[in-house]
Design brief:
single chain; alpha/beta; 11-stranded mixed beta sheet; 11 strands
Length: 308
């Protein structure tokens, strides 16, 4: 396993010192945002994590190696290169075997984080059950990964382009707790609310860390979702974004876009239809998640030290 993993100097030093580390995905850089917003946001998110007492570890596949922590040049490479595959669980063996490049999705980032001993992962929104999944069987690998991989995800709920009700049902079946951070309502990425409730409400990083640690202490494998709503000032109005998404979904069907190409297409089209408002919201929610995620990672380390 060690031959596939490489660590940045910052992450290497953090591991040696027992510091809290927060994993970050790279698909948001290569496939989620346009240049230069992608690399600017990536650097800003890393700095937010540092400012909250943790060490960022952006994860990607470069030249067939799992990189845990990236240099500024590597972040720039991911942001501008067109030769970056979208890497989920299925793709990891191929990309490593062929020494190619890949930007890790939620599922792949969880796998790589667990392999490197990182317990907290910050992202924008969770993948899930796509609309009309009863016909297409289009269900994100993120959900199955959450059922078996011991990494906690801090996100702004599930992406609002999904079927949120079926996504919550799937997570319940897999025994994955969805805890709302200072909310009882499931946030829906661009909006603070949705028609669905979370399983539990938590009010602080300390409560989140206790929930995460107790779950794994009990031997209950799988992740924990910390659903952290987008900041109020950056949120979009629920009905407005719903209409935009419906339009984008119709266009995706007409163009017969399927599989892992659906989400990037929808996010790009929503950005165009909202005249950039969705991109601003996306950036704001990722930064907010980074702050809370770093605080939870710090609290997990603090609680572990108290038990020694």
């Amino acid at each position: 396993m060690k031959q596939y993993l490489t660590y940045s100097e910052e992450v290497k030093q953090a591991k040696a010192a027992g510091m809290p580390i927060v994993a970050l995905e790279s698909t948001i850089i290569s496939h989620g945002m346009p240049y230069p917003h992608n690399v600017k946001t990536a650097n800003e998110v890393e700095e937010i994590i540092r400012n909250n007492g943790a060490v960022p570890a952006t994860i990607a596949i470069i030249d067939g190696k799992i990189k845990i922590g990236l240099s500024e040049d590597e972040l720039e490479f991911l942001a501008v290169s067109k030769d970056i595959e979208k890497a989920s669980r299925r793709d990891l063996p191929y990309l490593l075997a062929t020494e190619k490049h890949g930007a890790t999705t939620v599922a792949a980032t969880m796998i790589c984080a667990q392999l490197s001993g990182i317990e907290v992962f910050v992202t924008g929104g969770l993948g899930g059950v796509h609309r009309e999944a009863e016909k297409t069987m289009d269900i994100s690998a993120d959900l199955q990964e959450l059922a078996k991989t011991n990494v906690a995800i801090v996100c702004a709920g599930a992406k609002s382009i999904l079927d949120l009700g079926l996504t919550m049902e799937y997570l319940e079946t897999q025994g994955v707790p969805v805890a709302g951070y200072q909310t009882e309502i499931l946030p829906a990425f661009y909006t603070r609310t949705s028609p669905y409730k979370v399983n539990f409400k938590i009010n602080s990083p300390e409560e989140a860390a206790k929930l995460i640690r107790v779950k794994w202490d009990l031997g209950l494998a799988g992740g924990v979702v910390i659903a952290n709503p987008i900041p109020e000032g950056a949120a979009l109005e629920e009905q407005y974004i719903k209409q935009i998404i419906e339009t984008a979904l119709i266009e995706a069907n007409e163009k017969r876009i399927k599989g892992k190409e659906v989400t990037p297409f929808l996010l790009k089209r929503v950005k165009e239809l909202t005249e950039g408002k969705s991109l601003e919201a996306n950036i704001a929610l990722v930064k907010n998640n980074a702050e809370i995620g770093a605080q939870i990672a710090v609290e997990l380390k603090t609680q572990d030290i108290k038990l020694l």
